[in-house]
Amino acid sequence: MTLLTIGLCLALAQDGVDLDREGALRNDTFLPSSEAPQAALRAGDEAWQAVREGTNVSLSRSHAFDHWRRALVESEPGDVVRLVDAAAPQGLFPDRDHTHERRVEGVVAAVQRRLQAGGPEHRAAWRDRFGDLAWAQLARDPFVAERLQAVEREWPSTRAAATAALRLTDRELEAGRLPFARTWLARAWSHVEEDDPLTAALTRRESMAAALTGAETIPAWRSAHHLRLVQNVRLETDQRVGRDPRPAPLGRTLSPGATGLAGGGLAVQTPRGLVWVDASIVRGEKASIVERLGLAEFLDIPRLQPYVYPSAGGWPLRPASDGSLVYLVLDRGHPGRAVREFQLPARGNHLVCVRPDGAKGTKLVWHLSGFGLRTASDPPVPALEATGLPGQLEFQPGPVLSEGTLYAQVRVLADPTAEGEARGGSLHLCAFDAATGRARWTRYLTRAADLRRDLGGRNGSGSDIPTSGMPLALIDGALIVGTNVGLVCAFDAVDGRWLWGVRTRRRRAEDEGWPGSRVPLAADLTAGRAVLVAPFDSDRWYALPSGPATGDDFFVREPGPLGTTLDLIGAHGDEALSLGRDGRHLALRRQREGEAGRSALYLGRGERFQGTALVSPERVIFSSDRALYLFDRTQGDLLLATIELPDLGAGVGGDVVADGDRVFVIGSDSLWVLAVE
User: Fold this and answer.
1) Residue range 391-395: mean pLDDT, rounded
2) Do 192 and 51 sit in the same domain of this protein?
3) DSSP string, 536-582
4) Is 338 within a domain?
5) Which residues 6+ apart lie within 8 Å of 12 measured at CB?
6) Does one domain contain both 194 and 241?
7) Is the pLDDT at 556 greater than 90, yes or no?
């Protein structure tokens, strides 16, 4: 196939011809690429083309190896390259699902992809060429973590790289950081051949990690036969104005969130503050809130003005906690706008860490915004110094916490007075030291490209739909980042190494889309472990790899259409589970790939779904604006219980979450606590 033919096929795939029924992508979102390693890979690919043609194989292979090695040396852990470089030879490795043109990956993955495509003979030649050099570098600093990381990254597919990764695995196992240990162990496996004697040591580490993990504790709700209401309380105040009678689309609202505390308590974030729910309330022994904290007054900042547009993707409040510290995203950033002849500056929001301190009240640990980082005792630090990001910062919903690191997606709001500035600003993934609030590393994602609605004006006038990022998900040691601007990415949490990034199909602004407030979901599908992502700006949902994308196929399952679905809530085997429409009714729906869906429950006339669901292979729990429903999936979606939720004056239903032997329903201004039976 000629380059012209390949280019034509790629253009058709992007702009008009259905590929596996996904349809035209309509997506020109910027794909990041690091210039120096991309150029080195290109030079190596040009030399490798001669190897494939049988021209001076030994010399051409040496030149290719040297250039690929240069790509590793001249790159950093956060660098990324495109799978398709228009200036390089094409067709070096299989692209069975036609995704290479829309994808990026880390530099190590790019080199390993090329070695894998070359076959065992060429991988052996790579080890012969670089194996001794890699061992020499490892011997200089055999147990220094930073040097071990450099050896593992710069000498892939060598025994030295595998040994370095093995030693890093041992360090993490000794420290009790099992998620990081598993990441290094997986990297060690990627550097050895099946017949390598080192595989015995890796197998022993697998057994050790499994022993340290212990028997998996299955959450109580996954075997529930009934849920008993033990508590219901108002979150803010009984004097609040009643809710807006107009129903918002599912998942398009500002929704409270909760996180568990040590001792069985709960921290619930509301639009205006933080509610500490004592363990005695969770157990049903008390019926009053322990403490309500107005965060604006507590932090001495202007009044919080959280907002969300029904046309946009929602803004969920999803605090994180290690049991003692609570991490919150407060408010929403406001881009600069013109008022008459005056251009208002952009204003960001806040990322905050607080500590509940019993009778002494709540203590501020640190507070980060575009104006800087401040703590209770130390002098303020400029935001640029603390984060490496200039300007006003909009922290996206749903930070996640793991092993002392807090991860958050950050949008740098565009300066409204700068000429030629990209309208939406730029998007980044940041890893913060959870104790201090300082960034450990930052990864550039893309330029924000909000959906734009045509208002039908003579001059092509339109308006941006102000999308926000999906809440982050940490699945199998990988951070799954949904930008909702046409790009989904995955990173290793241990050091921010790119795993993959992919453009998704974008919908027209006037068409229906998914709730943008939904976190990516883990799923065990027939084809393998996957991450389910339903982007707000798309009319498709995607089953993507939960780790490195090493196979010839990127999609774990063919992308699924929105159709009559309102919310994708899970998948298992070859079946997807959703909340959707069945004719004139709303229903819980199950659908196998390539087959028509079937309904397990129809809601009553006028009844609506509310919030997110709890889903496992055994159970489904979700709420409507009338009741809470519990299903047994192992018995053909048998309805086990319907629990009426009392209306406390702010409506019924919300997000369903679980902690221990309790299930919580978190509504717009209400909390219901149910015991698992």
Assistant:
1) 93
2) yes
3) TT-SEEEEEESS---SS---SEEEEE-TTEEEEEEEEETEEEEEEEE
4) yes
5) none
6) no
7) yes
DSSP code per residue over 248-286: PPTT-SEE-EEEE-TTS-EEEE-SSEEEEE-HHHHTTS-
Tell me how far apart the alpha carbons of residues 84 and 100 are, in angstroms, rounded to a whole number. 6
pLDDT at residue 10 is higher than 50? no
Residue-wise pLDDT tens digits, 58-110: 999 999 999 999 999 999 999 999 999 999 998 888 999 899 999 999 999 99
Residue 228 lies in a domain: yes
Q: Which of 512, 516, 427, 413 is nearest to 467 (CA)?
A: 516
The confidence score (pLDDT) of residue 2 equals 31
Q: Considering 413, 448, 483, which residue would you say is the last residue of a domain? A: 448
Q: How far is the C-alpha of 256 from the C-alpha of 314, rounded, in Å?
A: 11
Residues 144 and 268 placed together within one structural domain of the fold: no
Between 245 and 452, the more confident residue is: 452
Residue 9's pLDDT band (boundaries 50, 70, 90)?
Answer: very low
Q: Give the structural domain span for 424.
A: 253-448
Domains in the chain: how many in total? 3
Structure tokens at 111: 């080199």
| Rounded (10°) angle between helices 35-52 and 107-118 | 0
Q: What whole-number distance in Å separates Cα of residue 256 and Cα of residue 568?
A: 20
Domain membership of residue 487 (yes or no) is: no
In a domain, residue 219? The reply is no
Using alpha carbons, list the distances in angstroms from residue 31 to 85, 111, 427.
12, 19, 12
One domain, residues 153 and 82: yes
Start-to-end Cα distance in the chain = 63
